[in-house]
Amino acid sequence: MIDWALTQEMICIGKKLYDRQLIAATEGNFSYRIDDYRILATPSGLCKGELKTDDLVLINSHGKHLSGKHNVSTEIALHLEVFRQRPDVKACIHAHPTNCIALMLAGKKLDKPLLRESVLLLGKVPTTPYARPSTSQVPESIRPYIQKTDCILLDHHGSLTVGRSLKEAYHKLEVMEHTAESYITALNMGEVAELGRDEVAALMALREKTYYLNHPIIPFD
Predict the structure, then answer these.
(1) Would you call 188 exposed, middle or buried from its count of C-beta atoms within 10 A (0-12, 13-18, 19+)?
(2) What is the pTM of this model?
(3) From edge to edge, which strands make up the β-sheet containing 29-33?
(4) φ, ψ for residue 127 (rounded to 5)?
(5) Do 110 and 175 touch, CB atoms closer than 8 A?
(6) How far apart are the first and last CA of the chain?
(7) Do 219 and 124 contact (CB within 8 A), yes or no?
(8) What share of the chain is helix, strand, coil (3-state, %, to 5)?
(9) Which residues are bridge partners to 60 per DSSP?
(10) Which stretches of the chain drop beneath a pLDDT of 70?
(11) Does the residue 65 lie in any domain?
(12) Which residues in 115-150 are b (16+ Cβ under 10 Å) and which e?
């Protein structure tokens, strides 16, 4: 039996993603690893901002359907790849954040120390090579990165954020999109000022001791 609080959190996350315009129409998918055998995931073809409890799909760790009236998302292989490589991760969110995608389309990356929060929470966000959606290319594209970071951009596609809870994965996505929006605004106004090397080093020294952040990130050069 699935915990009622978990199903309500899944529904809440879907509504936040949709209301925040981090996904549109039936885009996006997310999942939560209940235990070593079971994963609760979003369905294919439904608006994630309008989910009901019986829309959610229960699968096993290999992606086999266990219960639910809908098919699981066609991007579930991306989630399964994360869970295989990261035993510490409980939740995955794949979204299509507008500003992050806009930066990618313009040939820009989130690999600069722009904001204190992004330095501490995100580090350098890698962008995968292009992978055709709903194919094995997508999970293959994250393999070089997922053990090094919780935040990845998928070229010409969207984002992947992971965490020890759905809320944690969602917050990383929000910070990533906020950073991208701030970056785009600054680019439109002129030269972008990055945090200095010494300040980045000081923030990294505080990261675990003061802010209790110990998830993996790719550090700035």
Answers:
(1) exposed
(2) 0.96
(3) 65-67, 57-60, 38-41, 29-33, 91-95, 158-163, 151-154, 127-128
(4) -115, 125
(5) no
(6) 47
(7) yes
(8) 40, 15, 45
(9) 38
(10) 1
(11) yes
(12) bebbbbbbbbbbbbeebeeeeeebbebbeebbeebb
Model confidence pLDDT, tens digit, residues 24-73: 999 999 999 999 999 999 999 999 999 999 999 999 999 999 999 999 99
Q: Select from 92, 97, 101, 108 the least CA-distant residue to 160.
A: 92
Reading phi first (left if > 0) and then psi (alpha if -120 to 50, else beta), residue 138 is in: alpha
**Where are the strands (E) in 49-183, listed by range?**
57-60, 65-67, 91-95, 127-128, 151-154, 158-163
* Cβ contacts of 37 within 8 Å, gap of 6 or more: 60, 61
In-domain check, residue 219: no
Give the domain range for residue 49: 4-207
Q: For residue 5, which amino acid is it?
A: A
- Of 161, 155, 141, 39, nearest to 95 by C-alpha is 161
CA-based max dimension of the chain: 55
We report the CATH number of the domain holding residue 87 as 3.40.225.10
CB of 153 closer than 8 Å to CB of 164: no
Asked if the structure places residue 214 within a domain, the reply is: no
The total number of structural domains that make up the chain: 1
| Distance from C-alpha of 186 to C-alpha of 22, rounded to nearest angstrom | 21
